[in-house]
Design brief:
Length: 116
């Protein structure tokens, strides 16, 4: 199994920045990709960015240019740097890990609130 612990959410003013962290534990070697999603009430969970074990990244068009995903393999941690935040970025942000066996693991979620 894989355990994910997120941190870094909070309240920020429009135009500000936040960096989310996701620390992985457990069967780290089984992880193929890690990613960040967000969800608002009544809407499906939205993929924002993902990074493979080899370092390849994919960032959703809706946040490209503002959000960056990176990883520190030594710390088993993935980061989401969010710049130029807007009120519509307000959501619960979730970390995801997908294993080579196509199992999905999720963090507990962290609230990001952007005030206009």
């Amino acid at each position: 199994q894989v355990q994910l612990v997120e941190s870094g959410g909070g309240l920020v003013q429009s135009g500000g920045s936040l960096r989310l962290s996701c620390a992985a534990a457990g069967r780290i070697s089984s992880i193929y990709t890690m990613g960040w999603y967000r969800q608002t009430p009544g809407k499906p969970r939205e993929l924002l960015a993902e990074i493979t074990s080899g370092g390849s990244t994919n960032v959703a068009g809706s946040v490209k240019g503002r959000f960056t995903i990176s990883r520190d393999n030594a710390k088993n941690t993935v980061y989401l740097q969010m710049n130029s935040l807007k009120a519509e970025d307000t959501a619960v942000y979730y970390c995801n890990a997908r294993t080579t066996g196509w199992l999905d693991y999720w963090g507990q979620g962290t609230q990001v609130t952007v005030s206009s």
